[in-house]
Amino acid sequence: MGTTLDPGSQSQEDGGARVLTFHLRKSWSRFGPRLGRIALLEVPREEYTIDILIDETSSVTFNTPNILVGTSRGVVPHLSRDHCNSADAIRWINVPFESFMEQAPPVPMLQTGPDPLRTFLGFDKRKHIVSLCLRDPMDTREMPPNGNTYVSALCVRGVGKVTLSEWREYAYKLKPDIVVALSDTPFTAPPYSQKRVTKSIERSVSWLADMLRPLKSSVPSCSPSVSGRLSQHPLNVFVNMAGGTSIPAREVFAHSLAEELHGPDLEAVKPIKRLDDGVVGYSFHLATLRGSVPKPLGPHRRNQQNDVFQLESPNMLQDTGKLIEVPTPGDGEVPASPPLLSGFAESPVPPDTASLLQASLRQLPEGKPRLVTGVRSPHEILKLIRDVGADIFEADLAIAAANVGVALDFVFPLPPDHGPLEEGKRKDVGHNLYDHVYAREYGRLSDCLAGAAESQSQFPTSLPICPCIACSPRSPASHVHHSKVDVQSYEETDLNGKVMYGPPRSRGYLHHLLHTHEMSAHTMLVAHNLAVLDRFLSGVRDLLLGGDGNDTGEGEGKITRFAVEVNRFESVYDESMEVLRVARKCWHEVDLARGKGRLGREKEKQALIEARGVSGG
């Protein structure tokens, strides 16, 4: 399992360190709602011996709870680099590396310079945190099993094998701000045997230890002393919490992270004494915990409609029996692997998502960020904040809704006058703009948010501003000059840096763009949905701070009020996300008719021929 010095490690030494910090501003219980601040600071090598304090002018900083945006081949679906760099909602970008694996070496590995991955992808280092993982956490298609020293990854040319040494090489060469350690997650049909779950835990622990091994000759003699630093390792490593849907298995994996190492295991990862000391945060992939059976291997792209909203099957979630009682090893006794699990026993009540996440976190420190991918509704986000204390959520919900033409429209906490449409009927979380009822609607995309150019006096109560390119389209602060003639033409009429906002795009306009297959429709919907989700979590933070952004009030009162507002949100908005299922059908119908009308005309002609009983010809 050992590897030689990774290529590109010398540049890592010369370029300083990126240090991720997480400060818990407020936390009232281990598994309750909490407020934090994540900061990423680049520390030059000459400052390693200086005690560095984080401030917003010298780092990428944002408050939690917040969102993470996934990519496909390093691209946020439907958005250009300019869109990403100008969108306030996009702060953390995750890059699944398997989409670059069709060539050897992968194309990003050819990039040179002090910041290869960010340079290759074109993201703004002043605004974005860029994380690197091997597999797309939203891709749950059936895959060949992993081996002891490799993980099966999927690219456009099929399934390939990525070894532990290759993943270390990619991480040290590309220098992402955050790297996710490899994890042995089975992508075959459940249920899983005791042997498979045990093997998954053992491999995940072993692979994390391999990632945390220091480089032989490139680790600086001293590490930067940074207030709030989470790890003693030069890489900012997140670990996926293994154990599947088994609570005891998750507890065993957490125990493996928290226990003190001895003998060869300790020597391999020095100066780290516990694996958790080298980890900056914990990730949970809910897509692999759902009750859906993995699908056969086939085409998958993030910019297509996906099954993030599909219902789960109750027979997938399985619980295990009690763990075999294993005595705590004394000095000199080194456990070769985590305690083994007993035989599986079906639980009459399958564990819910919150219980699984709590089992993984119960033995681990509270002061590290908790990242969750695969959430399917804003209701689930609120529950995970309330019951688990989750900090970061992948925004695939917003992108999946935009893929099928849905403009999200919800806010938290609800205004006093907000209520259900009628008794027993809840509001949809968005608008299906494929629906022909929107063909002549000229209002803005959201009822809960206003455009920057709209006057607040026209609303019964003041509305928050949606800063997206659809609700608050901006003109350039200065004229775009293409030649010297343009400079002369606009010399006296320059806008002097003043930002000019236009009226919001209407639902009817987006309806027209969707039915004519204009790409700009999905661009505006993605930008809008991300802004809605960002404002939604901003409301969560404001409520926990005291409602007006001030840190006032008792913690117990804030938690109680938060729980009341969560229940109120659930009573007003439809958690089944039916609008997205209807929109998917509309998207499918319109998508089949693309091709400048030719396919639609051919379908009509074929239907007419079949109706007359005439064979084609």
Structure summary:
With 617 residues, the protein is α/β, with parallel strands linked by helices.
Helical/strand content category = alpha/beta
Low-confidence stretches: 1-14, 48-57, 217-222, 307-349
Number of helices: 16
The major beta sheet can be summarized as: 8 strands, parallel, barrel
User: What's the Cα radius of gyration?
Assistant: 26 Å
**Level of helix content?**
25-40%
Overall shape: it is: globular
- Fraction in beta strands: 5-15%
CA distance, first residue to last residue: 64 Å
Strand order of the largest sheet: 5-6-7-10-12-13-14-15
Describe the structure.
It is a single chain. With 617 residues, this protein is an alpha/beta fold. Helix content is 30%, strand content 14%. It is built from 16 helices and 19 strands. The strands form six sheets. Strands 5-6-7-10-12-13-14-15 form an eight-stranded parallel beta barrel. Strands 1-2-4 form a three-stranded antiparallel β-sheet. Helix 2 (81-86) links the parallel strand 5 (66-70) and strand 6. The N and C termini lie far apart (64 Å). Residues 1-14, 48-57, 217-222 and 307-349 have low confidence and may be disordered.
Highlighted features:
8-stranded parallel beta barrel; disordered N terminus; globular; 617 residues; alpha/beta
Topology at a glance:
Blueprint: H1 9-14, E1 17-27, E2 34-43, E3 51-52, E4 59-64, E5 66-70, H2 81-86, E6 92-96, H3 116-121, E7 129-133, E8 150-155, E9 158-163, H4 164-174, E10 178-180, H5 194-212, E11 225-226, E12 237-240, H6 247-258, H7 263-269, E13 279-285, H8 353-361, E14 370-373, H9 378-387, E15 392-394, H10 396-403, E16 406-408, E17 430-432, E18 474-475, H11 484-489, E19 500-501, H12 507-515, H13 519-545, H14 555-572, H15 578-592, H16 598-612
Parallel strand pairs: 3-11, 5-6, 5-15, 6-7, 7-10, 10-12, 12-13, 13-14, 14-15
Antiparallel strand pairs: 1-2, 2-4, 8-9, 16-17, 18-19
